[in-house]
Amino acid sequence: MIIAVASGKGGTGKTTIAVGLALSLEKVQFLDCDVEEPNAHIFLKPEITHTQGVNIPVPKINEDRCSYCGKCAKVCAYNAIAVI
Asked: Where is the 4Fe-4S ferredoxin-type domain (predicted)?
């Protein structure tokens, strides 16, 4: 059986419900896929046997050279730049 708990809004109790379900079942694989605050481990207290660093590219704009043309926003592969 696969159970997914999802919502687009934060603070709705998704982690609380998911942890409660996980603790009430016997064999569970729990994946906390929250990209901003994956914190189910706080409640489940798993034994961490391996960690791996993650690098996130962050755009850096040289404001002295920026003409606000918007080219950087058009070519950014991550859609991380907005010219306003």
From this structure: 57-84
